[in-house]
Amino acid sequence: MSLLVLGTVALDNVKTPSGFRRDMLGGSAAHFSMSASLFTKVHLVAIVGEDFPKEHINFLKKKGIDLDSLKIGKGKSFRWEGEYKKEDFNTALTLATELGVLMGFSPEIAPHHRAIPNIFLANIDPDIQLGLLDMLHKPKLIGLDSMNLWINHKRESLLKLMKRVDLFVANDAEARALTQESNLIRAAKKLRNFGPKLIVVKKGEHGVLFYSDKVKFSFPAYPIEEVVDPTGAGDTFAGGLMGYLTKANKADAKTLKEAALYGTTLASFNVQAFGMEKTAGLTLAQVHKRMKELKSFISL
To answer: Any alpha helices (H) in 117-180, and if so which ranges?
Structure first.
């Protein structure tokens, strides 16, 4: 089993109370791939510009990520610059965004990628996500992530997309914005009614809520004493979740709980360093050790 992810590959400039980093490898698909690749083969669909550093490309290849559907477009790469304040690590202040080659991007996938059974649509324009789905041959499991920008400005496209996916991942603010429900249980129920059978609500430092017709649960986050950079934590979570579901090749209650725990554990590593400084070198042995500790916090 393998996994196809569509999303962004970016150059990030990030400032937090711990310091500043420039031109880090970032983007929803890149962070997702770091954690998902611990469990399964990942095929990445995205676009970068002619200015994209070769060392980032080589790094992704060394991690075993298939870049056959990564397009190098004419122009500059997508860039994001953001800042986190000490009093609120849950919200990034966007200082600058340069879309570059993302403007007008239409995904192009290699012929041998069209029949991959497991698909994750990481954060990107929902019309681009819909375009990818139209190229695929009967995928088995489709996951979706989005953000407030698309909820506010492309709601119709997003709702159309949600009817075609199996799993929807959103943070608590996005779930509330999309459903207009302040209570997260009611929000999860409404999201389920929009189409996806499996709903995952990320609650940042407060953990995760899972909702489906038959399975419901909530887990805390792994407690971290010092957060350095939360950029990409949600994508890292989604990569662990979807990567494990792909490896397990099933979605029963036990497997869904394990997948959510893997995602939560991996996200906890992500926030402890800038960019992928912590997640890039992770081994499953390290993940299993921390996940065992997380389970001890929630077991009776």
So the answer is: 126-133, 148-153, 155-162, 172-179
pTM > 0.85: yes or no: yes
E-assigned strand segments in the chain: 2-6, 10-16, 19-26, 41-48, 66-72, 79-85, 88-98, 118-121, 141-145, 167-171, 198-202, 208-211, 216-219
| 88 classed as catalytic | no
Structure-block tokens of residue 138? 């009967």
Q: What is the pLDDT of residue 1?
A: 82
Q: Give the CA radius of gyration of the chain.
A: 18
DSSP 205: G
Instruction: Using CB atoms within 10 Å of the CB of residue 182, give its burial: 0 to 12 exposed, 13 to 18 middle, 19+ buried.
Output: exposed
Domain ranges of the chain: 2-298
Q: Please check the confidence at residue 300 and state whether its pLDDT lies above 60.
A: no
According to the CATH classification, is domain 2-298 in 1.10.3720.10?
no
Catalytic residue among 12, 172, 235, 252: 235
For the chain, the first-to-last Cα distance in angstroms comes to 35
Residue range 250-282, pLDDT digits in tens? 999 999 999 999 999 999 999 999 999 999 999
H and E: helices and strands count for the chain: 10, 13
Backbone φ, ψ for residue 192 (5° rounding): -60, -40
Closest to 245 measured CA to CA, from 171, 163, 141: 141
pLDDT, tens digit (0-9, with 9 covering 90-100), for 222-241 = 999 999 999 999 999 999 99
In tens, the pLDDT along 171-197 reads 999 999 999 999 999 999 999 999 999
